[in-house]
Amino acid sequence: MNRLHYKLSAAMLAIVFLLGVAFYQIDRYSVRIYHEELSQRLNSSIAMYVVNAEPLISGGRVNFEALSELSNRAMIINPTAEIYLLAPDGKILGHALAPDEISVERIDVGPIRDLLSASRPLPIKGVDPRNPGAQKIFSAFPVVDPDISSSDAGYLYVVLGGSQYEAVAAQVSGSDKQRMVATGIVLLMLAAFVAGTLLFSLLTRRLRKLTADVTEFTQSQLEVNNPIDRVAQPRDEIDQLRNTCHFMTNTIQQQIARLQESDRLRRELFTNISHDLRTPLASMQGYIETLIIKDEALDRVTRRQYLDTACKHAAHLGRLIQDLFELAMFDSGNATPVFEEFSLTELIHDVAQEFRLQADEAQVSLQVDPHDETVNVYADISLIQRVLENLVGNALKYTPEGGKVSISVQAYSAAVGVSVVDTGAGISAQALPHIFDRFYRENREVDEDRGSTGLGLAIAKRILELHGSEIRVTSEERHGTRFDFDLPLQARAA
Ligand SMILES: Nc1ncnc2c1ncn2[C@@H]1O[C@H](COP(=O)(O)OP(=O)(O)OP(=O)(O)O)[C@@H](O)[C@H]1O
Ligand SMILES: [Mg+2]
Questions:
Q1: Alpha-carbon span 409 to 199, nearest angstrom
Q2: Ligand 1: does its nearest atom lie under 6 Å from the Cβ of 129?
């Protein structure tokens, strides 16, 4: 019963049932009223005929014989008629029934007056003296005493639908006609229910389709981190749609937050880029202008010094532009790594060789561990070289004299773990979460002097992401730093 369609059908069944019962009752009631009005009209003259047939009261005395005789005759014409002779105040003066059948002495003459004056629409009901709790239709006519002609001597009151009528009515109510009406109503109810159910099914079909579509979409988009306010047990399509709406609202909110964050980062990036581009450019320009202005006034050594500095800034600018270009390429998705199988150990030895002179000059020991084993990986060799160069470059940059930098390789069943460990300055806990951000340098001024751009780790992170890998860092201030990442293992030779 989880579907909206079933619920609507159940509601409709209840409504149709109630309507059917109400219709049946209204039908019975209206048939009864109609029948009573018809009977009262048809029999309205009975009382008049009886009264005009013979004087029922003469000289103030009731003529019981005539009353009994006329009662019998009237009952031949209409067997449901029961005749009473009433005084003007409603006192029962005489009747042709057995005495113990009558339980009241007087009845209300209001309805008789209403009937005679035609002040109310038919049917008008009066008290049945045999059964004072019940109201019956009747016929009535004023009785005149021929000896006392000045006023009415009473009324002739004919109850229509007496005991005979009730017996026949009881038989008719269970008759085929009644059963036919009831069957007709039940069939109509069934037809209305079937038609309604079909209609609901047609109308809710599109809703079901929409629900199925959005549910499919939600499931395909389902993110682990989407804590939506879900209806735990969706009861119908509307609950399901509600869930989907919550999911979509949540996703949109997350996307807006992400867009705002990326917008903020973009603006920050622009500020950093312009600063980082402007600084070397400005000092380069300064030195060159000085050279032009002072020209002959400068001695050879100073001129050489100025030119070297300008050249150093130009090189830094070149590197910065190259790094930015590379990052933009990775971001745009235009740079796809060229995967191939190569010896990681060889590459590490090559990189170590590249930095050997710098390490010796800085009196830092640079080691590769293990030295001999050959491990092959499946990756883009030049990109991985770029990652290793940055990590080893950083390690040497931040490790003081007498320190140690080691590059190690550890082969697991499906991947190769690479670590670059140094015993240098370490990174502070505040700086640690930001070192992979673009342009982040813990000590901006010092690092800028060293020609750092703050893009090295951001590039390394992007390169490893393109390899489906992640770079991890652990560091302790004044004790050293360790960077780790994994590469897919293609083949391993001893
Ligand atoms: N081995 C390390 N020891 C101490 N600090 C480090 C180390 N590696 C990185 N850092 C910190 O992380 C920051 C970011 O490093 P990243 O390689 O991105 O930039 P950079 O080395 O300053 O510049 P670039 O690599 O572009 O020349 C550095 O400025 C430094 O503060
Ligand atoms: Mg670096």
A1: 71
A2: no
